[in-house]
Amino acid sequence: MAASSASASSPPRTTTFTLDGVGKVYPGVVAVSDVTLSGYAGEVLAICGANGAGKSTLTKLLAGQERPTSGRVIVDGYDGEITTPSAALDAGVLLMHQEPVIVDTFTVQENVWLTGLSSAGRRRPWQRVGGRDRADRTRAALGVVGMRDVDLGMPAGRLGPGPRQMVALSRSQVNEHRVLLLDETTASTTEEHFKDVETLVRKEREAGATVVFVSHRMPEVFALADRIAVMRNGALVDVVDRADTTPDEIMTLMIGQAVMALEPPEPVAASAAPVLLEVGDVSSGSASGISFSVREGEIVGVYGLVGSGRSSLARSISGHQHRDTGTVRVRGREVNPRSPRAALRQGIAYLSEDRRREGFVKDFDNAANLTLSTLGAFSTGGVMHTRRERRRVAQLVSDYGIKGGAEQLTSSLSGGNQQKVCIAKALESEPDVLVLDEPTKGIDVGARLNIYQIVRSLSERRKAVVVVTSEAEEALALCNRVIVLRDGVIAGEFVSKTSTTDDLTRTALGGEVQ
């Protein structure tokens, strides 16, 4: 076990770290203001807050990735200042990022042992342990996060978003630490992977480590946390015992007002609108023989677990993945896009579940990303009409409530604002069909509701919308009806207004609906 070997019976409330009046100011921005907070051995401390609340900055201060403007970061038993990542590691503080730090050209095994590479000298970290023992320890570490059977010699670049995060989390099992910081590490994973995270956190708690769990997902927070610290606008609003509060109370503390739940939309009557999208017997990747249709102004959900074929289906419809068999029709006309650009020309736009790698160009500002799919509307003979482009960008920023001006890098925005940029860019081409793959992955509750409202508005614009999601609650909140996939085929179909999350999850797992 990589964490401290202190037993679960250690004296209660043994302090492992203290943030003493910590503040962090950037030019023109107070990111964290006068926060005093302690962590204790053998506990899970959740830190919650909306985007921009300061929770990730607080985590970086504790991990030595940012130097506090005021106050001190104190780790019990460590005499030095925590002002650098190496100091934090020496003190026993291990940070796991929202975006997993993975070297694609390294093997899975090499990535497990990646921490400490910069200070390893000529000998890389994975070379410090003998061959057979190294493989056994690597396999054991991966086993804690449900990845025991992965090929250790496979290049990590072949892993999907969820498995990449699991490999990154497995590093906690081969690096000594007393404090484990999980900064939105479940944002790029699905519900199934959360069980593996739960196993990891339980082992850490039993070993006497302090787990700081930064998340906006209330079910996860309430499944794991002993205490919950809530931040808003850089300040610590309250710290409460999980047993003494509710998700609604925490969300109210996070955003300063009560959160209104969305009622499932009414079903679209067959006689009310023409069919815009027809998918007939489509097979691609893990999806096999899928058929369904979407009417004008209808939002159809595609729900399923990992391996169900949901993303393969979405990507094959939109030209991002080869379609083996079947047909796709838009307004009755058969389309067979062999690329995303071709799909846009034929009326289909797609938003990837991995927006940082496929949703926008990280080195482009908002203006460049927002007009990326419609450059022809702002150019003549290859010459851009910058003034016309900027006027349109200003309108889009206003219409979609995107924070940050035209010249701000999209990569510097919060997850919610990045997703607004991606949606606005996709809709600029005026598609008939919009396919959204995990549209709220890594987005907090306040921004999530905003994204929901934008998606709901597409119904009023008479678009056909397909929402691919691994969250049953999201499927029912957003969609008129939901198709459930299991093992690559349709296992059931539900009207959201008259269905429950239990109906969807039971069907996805192969059980009987009660």
UniProtKB/TrEMBL annotation:
Residues 17-258, 270-512 form the ABC transporter domain. Residues 314-338 are annotated as: Disordered. PROSITE patterns: ABC_TRANSPORTER_1, ABC_TRANSPORTER_2. The keyword ATP-binding applies. One of its GO terms (molecular function) is ATP binding. It comes from the Bacteria. Residues 321-336 have a biased composition (Basic and acidic residues). Keywords: ATP-binding, Nucleotide-binding, Repeat, Transport. It holds the Pfam family ABC_tran. PANTHER family: CARBOHYDRATE TRANSPORT ATP-BINDING PROTEIN MG119-RELATED, GALACTOFURANOSE TRANSPORTER ATP-BINDING PROTEIN YTFR. This is Ribose transport system ATP-binding protein. It comes from Streptomyces melanosporofaciens.
